[in-house]
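Journal club prep — side note

Before the paper discussion, L.F. wants everyone to see what a predicted structure for a comparable chain looks like in token form. Sequence:
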Amino acid sequence: MTSAAEQRAPAGEPAAASGQPAAVNGARRAVPPGPAVWPGAPTPLGARFRVGPDGVAGTNFALWAAGAEAVRVCLFDERGRETQVPLTELTHEIWHGFVPGVMPGQRYGYRVDGRWDPWTGARWNPAKLLLDPYARAVDGEFRLPPEVYGHMRDWPEQQVADTVRDERDSAPHVPKGVVVHDDDDWSDDRRPKTPWADSVIYELHVRGFTKLHPGIPEELRGTYAGLAHPAAIEHLVRLGVTAVELLPVHQFAHEDHLLRRGLKNYWGYNSIGYFAPHAAYAASGTTGQQVGEFKRMVRALHAAGIEVVLDVVYNHTAEAGELGPTLSLKGIDNRGYYRLQDDARRYADYTGCGNTLHVVQPQVLRLITDSLRYWVTEMGVDGFRFDLAAALARSMHDVDMLSPFLAVIAQDPVLRRVKLIAEPWDIGSGGYQVGAFPPLWTEWNDRYRNAVRDFWRHALPDVREMGYRLSGSSDLYAWGGRRPYASVNFVTAHDGFTLRDLVSYERKHNEANGENNRDGTDDNRSWNCGAEGESDDERVLTLRRRQLRNLLTTLLLSTGVPMLVAGDELGRTQRGNNNAYCQDNEISWLDWSLLEEPGWRALFDLTSRLIALRHRHPVLRRRAFFSGRAHSADGLRDLAWFTSRGAEMTEGDWYAPAATLGMYLSGRDIPGRDERGAPIVDDSFLAVLHAGDRPTDFLLPGPPWAERYEVVVDTSREEQAEAPGTVHRAGTQITVPARSVLLLKVA
């Protein structure tokens, strides 16, 4: 082991202070050698309990560490005492060994020896206990005292601090991996397998959704078991969603700057264990019990017909940049796992989080795909939403839709069959890739979000953008065999204002985050309806509730896959915080008492009614793009657009300022056939969207479009009638209330 004082500083850099002791402030104690280790096998990677030679039970350990000089697996008893076992077998850059007698529940980590040469990207430091990248359970919390940094974090000359190796033992301060035994074959599980076109996604946070739910036992709130509870599932079923998209549940760590301010990373976009369910969300225990609890949650959701999609963060890890902690990959093979700059001391950062995984490297690609397959085959999940997916699609530098990551996913027999959702951007050059991902992929469509927000605050110069977004965004996705459901339509997401805040605030109010309101976007495209923040003006409150109904109705009538954010159907507020990533408190948790208030209860009822309407009518969830052409002699087309004069829109109408748009959806011309081969036929609808601040007249189109129209939804009304609504004859001029949506069924 080479001390920091023996390292050579590069030209132009000050050398580390001479005479530094080999161990400082809590040096590693001598550890006795461990039990005998047999050769074992290089696959599978990780710690896998099995029966070895002569029927002896034990655990096979296998770790890829290409440039390492030695690897030791470190076993910890219930009192934290460490026993080290050297892995002496090396096969294809994988260190491995079978340790007899190591049983499920055993806590462990690795120490990896190698060169300390940050100027070439080598950052091995055996004083640091490292989490197994393949650990399937993690026990203990991540704290960030100086001991967990591979370099001297508090070195006086900060410009070279990352080049001075810290010899203090990190083992007492870091979580450990846990050996898990799993022989579950999922034979009793039935995946819903909801087709993309029929899907309605509900983005939720395991802890935030369940933390305040009065129907969930207190000891289960904030956990996987809480989400599996009948009270939680009942809400999802009544709402009608088909899939939950869980904010990150991979084991994650908290950033140092948050811990220093007494905060934590609430959202979880700071992963460090790609195979382990986040331990803090487990009610049953953290020495392997969290795995079974997560599986039971998935089974319960499946039994209710609800799919489970994970929001996954493979673009970066919690180890940050050169000044970040050494928790796992950085100490195993820094150069092999991370993208480095030409100056190999520094990390290439396409994520804004300090580092970027080097997905072009075969071992990194293997880590990611092994993780994905594990969550599908052994944990039962149904799909993934990839955070900053453009970073994963980069080859050496540029985003490349023929990149190794996308190519591997496309041919993988497991992964190509599950739901794949891209957040189609990163922060690097050329990182904005909306509409560019290949078939198999759907995408978060931020152009939909922006257009709908702008329309309802009356900020669009014309209605061209709105027309594309309502009808499936064919300008973005009608290529390469992609379908309308390639567009995941959303108005809000976890990142940004809630729906209620979108109509209550024009400025972010992130003071609680401790960053002087500098964090979070300023591009909110919101409108506060005349008063900033909470108001007791009934006119303002009435208008805000109407705007919420307009936004939800627009979302659920649009072609594509709608995504709701948990609590938007209840009127949840974050008090104007548009970046609540560090607010593990009532700012972020769902307030279930809102359901007891008539106004918010009515919003929930409308949302569930709209979702049910969508499920009943295939014309609202088309599997192919509209053609806009007549398919019969009467001239009726599958999609038509109307001005308030009752005339079909001309080219000039699309470019003219307008606050009103009529969209006719024909149920007679739906392409495709049902499962029995019969043509798909449905009702036809006319949706009239009016964003103006005054009522407007609208002439209902006559034959061949319709003879009569029945009002199904009128967002100007607080309460929606369940019985058949008002019927208007075609050719009648009706009054559309200010800022409202009318949905009329062709009678």
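L.F.'s comment for the group: The first strand starts at residue 46 and ends at 51. Keep this in mind when we get to the figures.
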